[in-house]
Amino acid sequence: MSLRKRFRVTLRELFIRLRAFRGFLLGFFVITTIAAIVIRYEYTLPFLHSYYEAVTLLFYAADLEYPDKRPLLELFFLIYPLLGLFIIIDGLNGIGESLKLGDPTSEIYNTEMAALMDEHVIIVGIGHLGNRVVDRLKTTNEDIVVIDKSDNTLHDDILEEFQREYWIPVIKGDATLTSTLEAANLRSARTMLILIDNDLLNLKIAIRARRINPHIKLIIRFFDQQLGKSIAERLNASILSTTMISTPSFVGRLKQRQQQSLSSSDDRTDHIIIVGLGNLGVRIVNELKDKETLVMIDMEAHHSLLDVIDFHEYDMPLIKGDATKEQVLLDADIETARALVITTGSDLTNLKNATVARRLNPDIQLIMRMYDDPLSEDTTGLLDAAVLSTTKIAVKEFLANL
């Protein structure tokens, strides 16, 4: 965002905030004018002097003589400062809001910034993938607007930190609502990336966005590729899956290490353990089922796996259990396994799993999924593991479709 555009936004924000003072200024003027008229009539003072006394009376600092034995005027002296106090408190609240002028976390600033955008890129969802996309785009000349649903205090703090770091307008709200999309200035946008990890929610957002802006380019994160193909045709959208894009990288690491191990002699059996049968795990199993001897571990048998693979046909044992527990890994013959591929969506769980596996089999090849980049670098050296991030691998593909 250029400095010139930021300056325009700040001026528009100042005008909006000043308009919010209208109620305070009008109320202050009306109540002090009425008080000045009463004081002028009762004390026969010039109007300007009366107005001065009316203002000072708000703070109980008037030089006027107290009206003894005059009930109505006594009531006026009692009630008038209290009414003024309420008006002043309201004004102070307005001043407090005005101190946020130019603050990248204020709602007014973000809405006005988005309103000035043209041919910009809208990113829906600031998760692991959304953050990586923004991080790449911020080095370009692209104007960016982010939409994210604030649902808890922790996420609010993350969003505020994001806004202060990038100075990118963030519209907090539900992207399935027209009002939220309008606030992001969807009609003037060039491209919209919908990056939430929920197929149904992404579909709803895409349909609403296409209805508002028939010409916008849509790039949608979608796990179900069969449904995704139909959606792509109907909505004229690019459908991408982080797990589908990153699967070859996980399998490729496995093949590299297999070729290296062929030159060395060892008497280990040749099976590979796959931990986690979510979208990524299922894709890896599907890729390897005809080539490798596999053992799978998961907390439960996912229906998605049963739909994609007849694992009985391929004689692939499925062990239900927690792979961070030694006994579960022993049941999968971890001590004689050649490789362990850990694909669950929790960094902590994957780290625990890898640590236990390395203790049980110091020579096993570890390939693990992890989102946290600094932790990934430390884990690579600590556990001698190949650590990969699906979102880091996929971000290039998403940006290539802009």
Main β-sheet, spatial strand arrangement: 3-2-1-4-5-6
- Give, in order, the helices and strands: HHHHHEHEHEHEHEHEHEHEHEHEHEHEH
Beta-strand content bin: 5-15%
Structural domain tally: 3
The class by helix and strand makeup works out as alpha/beta
The main pleated sheet reads as: 6 strands, parallel
Using the alpha-carbon principal axes, give the shape: elongated
Into which percent range does the helicity of residues fall? 40-55%
- N/C terminus separation: 19 Å
CATH fold type of the largest domain: Rossmann fold
Q: What is the annotated CATH architecture of the largest domain? A: 3-Layer(aba) Sandwich
Low-confidence stretches: 262-268
Considering the protein shown, what is the CATH homologous superfamily of the largest domain?
Answer: NAD(P)-binding Rossmann-like Domain
Secondary structure tally, helices: 17
Average pLDDT level:
84
Q: Using only CA atoms, what is the Rg? A: 32 Å
Total strands: 12
CATH class descriptor name of the largest domain = Alpha Beta
